[in-house]
């Protein structure tokens, strides 16, 4: 069976996988909020209930994830695999997630990065999703024939923590400075209250986005790391780059945005 091609103009949803209930919110929640506010559908798939975490019961964490997804404007489902801190990269898991991809039929898929220095479930899930995206487009896979094959547009990885940013991969920066986006993202992160008792992960992520945005000449940005080279129809999407410096952001900042003098 020939895979269904994803037109760049089709309203194909964004599909985001996370190993734990808060991964997507902390790693790429600003981008999810940006997309949903632009009218595009986003669906989050969480592959454990976070039961091995130091804080929060599984029931609490599921409830937090549901509230966070709603604040980001996304839908949410749990697809449980081996459990928190027990995830293994098994072919059966890739089949399971490939079935999700065939059902949701996304354009862009986001998954945790493959970098090694982070929670071990993150890079394992990233590899499972990469395999799942490949399997989803193979028409002859037994066990997946209930739905037609689907070729995603792009797979990109997000870094849940600064240390999870892959080396040697040029990032794609997404400007999340549009009005209301950072507020929605912040609320989505704050919904994971059980995870904020030991460290202020919200400030950590906002700080990352602020530094990245300022360095690119906008207020806030988040980075994604492509699995494959991006393909464009023209040079138009490349009319902006992240090398514009921070003076422009300083000039556009609302009064009082910078506590002291704007950056020079
Ligand atoms: Zn995690």
Notable characteristics:
Rossmann fold, binds zinc ion, seven-stranded mixed β-sheet, alpha/beta, 264 residues, disordered C terminus, 7 strands
SSE blueprint:
Layout (H helix, E strand, L loop, with lengths): L13 E5 L4 H15 L4 E5 L11 H15 L2 E4 L12 H14 L3 E5 L8 H16 L17 E5 L13 E4 L5 H10 L10 H16 L4 E6 L20 H6 L12
Helix pairs in contact: 1-2, 1-5, 2-5, 3-4
The structure holds zinc ion (ZN).
The site of zinc ion has 6 residues, from loops.
Give the biggest sheet. Answer: 7 strands, mixed
Mean pLDDT: 91
CATH superfamily: LmbE-like
Question: Could you say which structural class the secondary elements and strand pairing correspond to?
Answer: alpha/beta
With strands numbered from the N-terminus, the spatial order across the biggest sheet is: 3-2-1-4-5-7-6
CATH class call: Alpha Beta
Rg computed from alpha carbons, rounded to a whole number of angstroms: 18 Å
Number of helices: 7
Bound molecules: zinc ion
Q: Beta-strand percentage?
A: 5-15%
Number of domains: 1
Helix content: 25-40%
């Amino acid at each position: 069976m020939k895979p269904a091609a994803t037109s760049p103009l089709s309203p194909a949803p964004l599909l985001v996988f996370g190993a734990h209930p808060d991964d997507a919110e902390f790693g790429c929640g600003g981008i999810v909020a940006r997309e949903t506010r632009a009218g595009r559908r986003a669906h989050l798939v969480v592959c454990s209930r976070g039961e091995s975490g130091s804080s929060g019961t599984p029931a609490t964490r599921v409830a937090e994830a549901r509230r966070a997804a709603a604040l980001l404007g996304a839908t949410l489902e749990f697809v449980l695999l081996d459990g928190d801190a027990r995830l293994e990269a098994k072919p059966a898991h890739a089949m399971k997630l490939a079935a999700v991809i065939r059902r949701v039929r996304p354009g862009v898929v986001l998954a945790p990065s493959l970098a090694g220095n982070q929670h071990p479930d993150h890079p394992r899930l990233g590899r499972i999703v990469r395999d799942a995206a490949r399997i989803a487009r193979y028409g002859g896979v037994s066990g997946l024939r209930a739905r037609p094959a689907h070729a995603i547009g792009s797979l990109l990885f997000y870094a849940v923590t600064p240390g999870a940013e892959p080396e040697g991969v040029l990032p794609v920066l997404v400007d999340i400075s549009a009005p209301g986006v950072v507020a929605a993202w912040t609320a989505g992160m704050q919904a994971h209250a059980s995870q904020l008792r030991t460290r202020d992960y919200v400030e950590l992520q906002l700080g990352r986005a602020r530094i990245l945005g300022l360095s690119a000449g906008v207020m806030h940005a988040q980075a994604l790391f492509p699995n494959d080279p991006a393909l464009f129809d023209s040079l138009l999407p490349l009319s902006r780059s992240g090398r514009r410096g921070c003076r422009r952001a300083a000039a556009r900042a609302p009064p009082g945005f910078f506590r002291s003098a704007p950056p020079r």
